[in-house]
Amino acid sequence: MRNPNECRELARLIKGKTLHPNVDFLITTNQLVYAQAEDEGLIEKIEQFGARFSTDICLCMLNESMFPESTKTVMTNSGKFAHYGPGLINKGVYFGSMEDCVHSAVLGEPTIQKPHWLASGVTTSNGI
Q1: Contact 104/18 with Cβ under 8 angstroms?
Q2: Which CATH code of 2.60.40.10, 3.40.1740.10, 3.40.50.12500, 3.30.499.10 fits the domain covering 4-58+70-118?
Q3: Is the pLDDT reported for residue 122 higher than 70?
Q4: pLDDT tens, position by position, 35-74
Q5: How many C-beta neighbours within 10 Å does residue 75 have?
Q6: Rounded distance, CA 81 to CA 58, Å?
Q7: Domain locations in the chain?
Q8: Could you tell me which residues come within 8 angstroms of residue 80 by beta carbon, excluding any fewer than 6 positions away?
Q9: How many CB atoms lie within 10 A of CB 9?
Q10: Could you tell me the end-to-end alpha-carbon distance of the chain, in angstroms, rounded to an integer?
Q11: How much is the pTM?
């Protein structure tokens, strides 16, 4: 998580939900964001959901040993990790929004919604 706003969004998305028992929910962030989120009571809420935190580690430093042995695939909302992750952790990687990650973690299987900008009838500012 890059900033406390992402922690707030995650806390909102997980409210009233339960992590699937076969899912390991790992969050990477830095100590400053973690401390700010902790001061707001967000860390406790997120950890009660079943997530775990790793601080001060770049996503590109993750490796296979950071995941349970039974892990076959991971899901991320980080484009950087979606690109580099498969080679770093030797697992399949799904890319989606934070909402997709939460929904998948609750269901225990990857679910990805089509981004609103790909929905039919949506055009860019230049009319394309």
Answers
A1: no
A2: 3.30.499.10
A3: no
A4: 999 999 999 999 999 999 999 887 778 888 888 888 999 9
A5: 23
A6: 9
A7: 4-58+70-118
A8: 59, 60
A9: 16
A10: 33
A11: 0.85
